[in-house]
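lol ok so funny story. i was supposed to be doing the assay writeup but got distracted and ended up predicting the structure for this chain instead. priorities right. anyway since i did it might as well share w the group, maybe its usefull for someone
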Amino acid sequence: MTAIGFEAHDHTDCIREGIAGADRYCDSKGLKLTPVRRRVLEILLEDHRALGAYEILDVLRREGLGSQPPVVYRALNFLVANGLVHKIERLNAFIACVHPELRHVPAFMICRGCKTVAEAQARLPEGGLPELAKAAGFQIERAVIEAEGLCPACQDVSP
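and the output, tada:
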């Protein structure tokens, strides 16, 4: 599976496909994608930058969809709990999932220059973390890989 986020493309497709996938998921699970949840997901799909909750709240406030932090945090909690959005721990920010239909271990490549984030699907190596967890009697429920570096565009401008 390729990383999505560093190549130039039309984000209109990302938004359309992301919202359609979220609608299908919510319909199949009997969940409601409220207008605020939908807009938060759209905001995160607009480009591949991780956004903090207050950055999202600023957009919602300008659009008249809410001005208090609980509005955005409730929407983000729903979206994260249902695999439609990931939290980037390193940045304390959020990004729309590019593979919401797949159960996967996301690997995030975070550009320290432009803050663009690309997501790819990772596999935990045999004998690595899964074996350590098994030996400890621990059951892994969620794993996330985050790597920081420079995207192709920022590498081109770095000395």
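The chain has a mean pLDDT of 86. The chain has one domain: 11-157.
back to the writeup now i swear
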